[in-house]
Design a protein that fits this description.
Number of domains of chain A: 1
Helix content of chain A: 55-70%
Shape of chain B: elongated
Number of strands of chain B: 0
Structural class of chain A: mainly alpha
Shape of chain A: globular
Distance between the termini of chain B: 37 Å
Largest sheet of chain A: 2 strands, antiparallel
Order of helices and strands of chain B: HHH
Helix content of chain B: over 70%
Strand content of chain A: under 5%
Oligomer: heterodimer
Chain lengths: 342, 97
């Protein structure tokens, strides 16, 4: 006879397992990467410290292992399939990130490859092509949704990647987005955690992984996520949006990320790799971040934040957090407006 | 603690324009949803004529996407303009100095 595990136990396992795995795994990863000479230089510090690269590998491993345990814990095939889709999609984005970290993909090829990450979702058909809008309620997009689906994964992946520029910025901002989406899901579907809702499982898994990662990535960083981490984390937001029918809420919660991407794409007129762009910021004598004033440099969210006067790196990250916190509140208002019509 | 709050207050005042843009983006999205609900969703369905029904559904989806497209475009233009204005102000300040 199959034993049914209570939902609360699944939530606890899927929260604490990635938290512990990431927490234990990162120190080993950092030592290994530094020993092998795979490190980046943190240019925003006076001492120019060596920082271990590709910390996203541990994020990815934590998500994969927790997903496998999640598959073993749930008691129906539909839920197993959903967890599998989440894991495979995030894994595809992460592998694209690993390839990019190692051989440097072109600015066009990377987003194109990320479109492929949506294949498991499309192939499984485990989604509802009915995004819910405030006032309107459920919309029936069917064919159009299939066309848009690859972008729902590729756009957040790239947007998160573009905001991963300062110590802790990506992890902290994404945690705030996930917390907002968690409560939005609670509001829209009136669901407590007494029943098993996989959206909560995915969100808790990501929050836990990112909390542990942030501990090592916060100022002064000991590890960088690399494209491996940022693309995987971004893809997870896309999957949560699609499988949880929270597309609109996720877009609203990610306003600062999208704003940053818009700025970069509009100023460099197309897709361009960070390493190929002129630097938008430089350091002052007292090691604050200021704009270079280079007309060829991309216009970024950082540029807006440091426009009045130079800011310390920690304050730039605080600015991102404030902006994401506000967009999180907007996401919750959106959730309430959706709740009123469904 | 108090120092932290003061620091956050200072940062909020620095990024007030960006917060304003965020609020505009959100408000315009809600406005567009309202318009879609008021003018597009009310287009009737004709279940007896599947061909016409399909056409009407396609028009509804097309108009909805058009509105969302306009929203994204306006967002993009304003972000671009705001960022360019900031850059211009900065270069003017540095040349004056």
């Amino acid at each position: 006879m199959a034993i049914s595990i209570p939902p609360i136990a699944i939530y606890v396992v899927t929260f604490f397992m990635p938290l512990i795995l990431t927490f234990i795994g990162l120190p080993f990863h950092i030592r290994f990467m530094l020993k092998k000479g795979i490190f980046g230089i943190d240019i925003h510090k006076k001492s120019k410290p060596k920082v271990a690269e590709m910390g996203g590998i541990i994020i990815l491993l934590s998500i994969i292992l927790t997903s496998i345990v999640g598959i073993l814990l749930v008691d129906n095939n539909a839920d197993r399939l959903k967890i599998g889709i989440f894991c495979i999609t995030v894994m595809i984005a992460g592998i694209i990130g690993i390839i990019d970290d190692i051989i440097k993909l072109s600015a066009i090829l990377k987003p194109l490859l990320l479109l492929l990450a949506a294949i498991p979702i499309i192939a499984s058909g485990m989604f509802s092509p009915e995004p819910i809008l405030p006032f309107v309620g459920k919309t029936r997009l069917t064919i159009v949704y299939y066309v848009l689906l690859p972008f729902i994964i590729a756009v957040p992946s790239n947007a998160v990647n573009m905001l991963d520029v300062f110590n802790g910025s990506m992890a902290l901002a994404t945690i705030l987005v996930l917390v907002a989406v968690f409560f939005a899901n609670m509001i829209i579907f009136r669901g407590g955690i007494q029943n098993l809702d996989l959206t909560y499982v995915f969100i808790l898994m990501m929050i836990a992984t990112l909390i542990a990662f942030w501990f090592f990535n916060r100022y002064p960083a000991k590890v960088f996520a690399g494209d491996t981490g940022s693309l995987a984390v971004g893809a997870s937001l896309g999957v949560i949006a699609v499988l949880g029918q929270l597309e609109v809420v996720v877009i609203i919660a990610m306003i600062p990320f999208i704003m940053n991407s818009f700025g970069i794409i509009s100023s460099v007129r197309g897709l361009m790799e960070r390493r190929d762009m002129a630097r938008p910021t430089k350091m002052t004598d007292d090691w604050k971040i200021q704009s270079t004033g280079d007309s060829k440099a991309p216009i970024t969210l950082v540029g807006l934040v440091i426009q009045k006067e130079p800011l310390h790196e920690k304050d730039v990250v605080k600015s991102f957090s404030i902006l994401t916190f506000i967009s999180g509140i907007f996401a919750l208002i959106t959730a309430v407006l959706i709740w009123l019509v469904i | 603690m108090v120092g932290d709050i003061m620091r956050y207050n200072k940062i909020v005042s620095r990024i007030s324009k960006v917060i304003g843009l965020e609020a505009f983006v959100f408000a315009s999205f809600i406005g567009i949803c309202f318009i879609i609900n008021a003018f597009i969703v009310i287009i009737p369905e004709v279940p007896t004529k599947p061909g016409i029904n399909f056409l009407l559904a396609a028009i509804k989806v097309g108009l909805g996407l058009l509105f969302v497209g306009i929203w994204l475009f306006v967002w993009y233009i304003i972000t671009k303009r705001l960022m360019k204005t900031e850059k211009k102000t900065k270069s003017e300040k540095s040349s004056a100095a």
